[in-house]
Amino acid sequence: MTALGLVPQRHDATAVADARTALAADGAVLLTGLPATADALVVAAASVLGPRLRQLFPLRERASRDGGPVDLHADSFNLTVDLAGIPTPRRDPDEDFVFVQCVEPSLTGGDSFLADAYRFVDEHATPELREFLTDVDVDLYGKWGAIRGVPALPRVARHVEYTRTGRRIVRRTDGAVPLHRDPGAEHADRMLAVFTEAVQQIQPGLPRFRPVAGEILVVDNYRCWHGRDPHPGDRLVRILTVRTADAR
């Protein structure tokens, strides 16, 4: 493990205790020995998280052809739909674990990378950036307010917060904007740009790894950010985000 990057340990999906230990120690683990099916993804979530698992959100398939880079991020979104007259969340701002299943890897490129967001805040961020991330409220999804299903009520939060169970959250989303009519909006805008630049600067030096078909990358979404390199040709992954009993 480098100062900020990590290569997740590989563990067979039947070695549940080993996978859980690696996930707790590093914030990520690669599960092997599973078929590239949607069922396997759900089984993996139940196996690794066990009785802590509380809520699964709909599976998402991400197909890309000649895909561009995906910068470091933590999965989260605020999306509610009306199902038979009942407001139903399809995504949640506090998805605390994400499972990314490699269905069809690209022939070349598309390597994955991870960063320890805790270390970024504690050891890499400047004092000014650290103060902004821990002390300043933003609207986490303000850039996406026109998307159908995104609640009109702003989701106000700080990038660094703690759950009631004591878990630290370090968010990373490209949807954050200053609060409406915030007197400090100009400063917040500048610091959001500084944050983006600082994250992009660390990406080239992070170690790369390459999941094969069927492998599932499990990420503590509160602790680690993930991304991938550009790739030619086709690539397909399947994504499952969840909430556990330890989520906010």
From TrEMBL:
This is Gamma-butyrobetaine dioxygenase. Pfam families: TauD. Its EC number is 1.14.11.1. One of its GO terms (molecular function) is gamma-butyrobetaine dioxygenase activity. InterPro entries: TauD-like_sf, TauD/TfdA-like. It comes from Crossiella cryophila. Signal peptide: none annotated. Residues 10-236 form the TauD/TfdA-like domain. Keywords: Dioxygenase, Iron, Oxidoreductase. It comes from the Bacteria. The lineage of its organism: Bacteria, Bacillati, Actinomycetota, Actinomycetes, Pseudonocardiales. SUPFAM superfamilies: Clavaminate synthase-like.
